[in-house]
Amino acid sequence: QVQLKESGPGLVQPSQTLSLTCTVSGFSLTSNSVHWVRQPPGKGLEWVGAIWSGGSTDYNSALKSRLSISRDTSKSQVFLKMNSLQTEDTAIYFCTRIPGNWGQGVMVTVSS
Amino acid sequence: DVVLTQTPSILSATIGQSVSISCRSSQSLLDSDGNTYLYWFLQRPGQSPQRLIYLVSNLGSGVPNRFSGSGSGTDFTLKISGVEAEDLGVYYCMQATHAPLTFGSGTKLEIK
């Protein structure tokens, strides 16, 4: 059974770095891509970035300078790191095996 | 970046009514491999998005056949033939032909 589960801090201070982990099961990271998608409160979906099966990455153009996605295939984990956080980065962050399976999401609030 | 324009932004329907949602792309979504990577998702209140349609017109596993997708190039449509109460939520189109991936702004389906 395919599952994805996000974990990370619920509260981050402005200008600090966000670190999230997506732990997957039921499929291999070396054969599948994993994406991060975020959703600010009451707003639509925004693609953040992805790590492809071969290990290469692609990022949202507007976030590229602050964003890094990596993985540990031995632990079936994908990592998101975003620095210089602002209040506008407050959102639910989903990891997903687009287009199929989605995690439940983790709410991240940027506030002092 | 590819811009996906969804219309309408809000849709109000009675049970049993048939409705359509349009998704127009700023660029052709036909990939050089012959596929068109256009997807439709439904996000019910408080839930993660779920895939309805993949590659323009293919029904996702377990998705009722009252949902159908059509279109090509830059113009795409999601149709619900006989709305049911469980269909309420926000519908999103998404393209994965061009990096970065992008989502439409969403169509909220309300039940009268």
Describe the structure.
The complex is a heterodimer of chains A (112) and B (112). By secondary structure, chain A is mainly beta. Chain A has strands at residues 3-7, 11-12, 18-25, 34-39, 46-51, 57-59, 67-72, 77-82, 91-97, 101-102, 106-110. In chain A, strands 2, 4, 5, 6, 9, 10 and 11 form a 7-stranded mixed sheet that branches. Chain A has a 4-stranded antiparallel sheet with strand order 1-3-8-7, with no helix packed on it. In chain A, β9 (91-97) and β10 form a beta hairpin. Chain A is globular, with a radius of gyration of 13 Å. Chain A starts with a strand and ends with a strand. Chain B has 112 residues and is mostly beta strands. Chain B has no helices and 11 strands. In chain B, the strands form 2 sheets. In chain B, strands 2, 4, 5, 6, 9, 10 and 11 form a 7-stranded mixed sheet that branches. Chain B has a 4-stranded antiparallel sheet with strand order 1-3-8-7, with no helix packed on it. Classes of the chains: A mainly beta (112), B mainly beta (112). The interface between A and B is medium-sized, with 21 and 22 residues.
Task: Name some characteristics of this structure.
heterodimer, A: about 110 residues, mainly beta, seven-stranded mixed β-sheet, four-stranded antiparallel β-sheet, 11 strands, about 0% helix, B: about 110 residues
